[in-house]
Design a protein that fits this description.
heterodimer, A: 66 residues, mainly beta, 1 helix, 5 strands, globular, B: 267 residues, alpha/beta, 3-stranded parallel β-sheet, 10 strands
Chain lengths: 66, 267
């Protein structure tokens, strides 16, 4: 199945959790925030939420800005 | 941080109940690399540092150092901005993501832009975003026009600081309308900070001499030939301007007034 990750299609096994996705991207332990279909996903829920396909996922971090 | 250069009579800058000794706030954009960002931020003496929220790079080297490793949130107050947002909705979304990213830290710099050429704020969208954010418990420092009536409205809504522009973002044109800034400073109770438009140290000093509570800048430092040196200059300019304002300048007069006594001359 596919999700839209940061604007691009991304292939995932059905039932993958948010934690597993973060791990797979090499972002575990990094300071980031995640939105699924415009709803914030609290860090405490990463292990409990599974993707079903078609979700629009945004993973963001802090960069330089004024 | 050292407090030596401050007059003992000066009060700290208080934003949303938190005291700061530095009245210079800096951005972290446009630097050559993270090391330069770190050095310039350090040299500025700033305690509040703005950051932008953007998509993580998927598939790129995840071991690259990140901004918050060189500007650690346990040492600096991180002020996420909503730069690049042209609607209230995008600005609110950005702030919610920032709060999650920073473990519930709820101080934000709200800016909703209205035009790509001038980067002037869209005040109506900014008002709408501020209302939502304040309802959701955010502490909003708001970037706006140098318009007294709107500045007062933001204060009444509950914004914790009002930050009028001195000139367009990144323009370096300096304080284009000191009388508007002065009116805002005189009428508001919440801190007023000049945000945007400062080009060099004297501009920052002018802002402080008008009675502003602080100055926020990015390009003037990051875009200088030597950013770390300019950061140090800005630190001194903000302190000098603040002290001059506290000291109370002499009135302007059209004609001369001799500094040496006129009595006791032998010629």
């Amino acid at each position: 199945m596919n999700i839209i990750l940061n604007g691009e299609p991304y292939e995932l096994a059905s039932g993958t959790t948010v934690s597993q996705l973060v791990e797979r991207l090499g972002l575990a332990g990094k300071r980031l925030a995640i939105e699924i279909d415009r709803e914030i996903v609290p860090r405490s829920a990463y292990g409990k939420i599974c993707f079903r396909g078609g979700e629009r996922v945004e993973i963001v971090h802090a960069i330089g800005g004024g | 941080m050292s407090n030596k250069s401050h007059s003992p009579a000066d009060a700290p800058l208080v934003i949303a109940g938190v005291e700061y000794r530095s009245r210079l706030l800096v951005g972290t954009g446009k630097y050559r690399d993270l090391e330069e960002t770190r050095e310039a931020t350090e040299a500025s003496g700033a305690e509040i540092v703005t950051v932008a929220i953007r998509r993580s790079n998927i598939g790129q080297n995840p071991d690259e150092p990140s901004l918050l490793e060189v500007i650690p949130p346990d040492r600096y107050t991180i002020l996420p901005n909503t730069a690049g947002c042209y609607t209230a909705e995008d600005a609110v979304r950005t702030c919610r993501l920032a709060r999650e990213l920073l473990d519930g830290h709820d101080l934000v710099k709200l800016e909703v832009l209205g035009d790509e050429k001038t980067l002037f704020p869209d005040v109506l969208q900014t008002l709408e975003a501020a209302e939502t954010l304040i309802k959701e418990g955010f502490k909003v420092m708001v970037y706006t026009n140098d318009d007294l009536i709107i500045a007062k409205r933001f204060e009444q809504m509950g914004c914790v600081a009002v930050m009028p522009l001195a000139a367009p973002i990144g323009s370096g044109l300096g304080i284009r309308n000191p009388y508007n800034i002065l009116s805002i400073v005189e009428e508001l109770e919440v801190p007023v900070l000049v945000d945007a438009g400062v080009g060099t140290a004297s501009d920052a000093a002018v802002a402080m001499e008008l009675g502003c509570d602080g100055v926020l800048m990015n390009t003037a430092i990051a875009g200088a030939q030597q950013p770390v040196l300019m950061a140090s200059a800005m630190k001194k300019a903000v302190e000098a301007g603040r002290q001059a304002w506290l000291a109370g300048r002499i009135p302007r007069k059209r004609f001369a007034s001799a500094s040496s006594p006129l009595s006791g001359t032998f010629f």
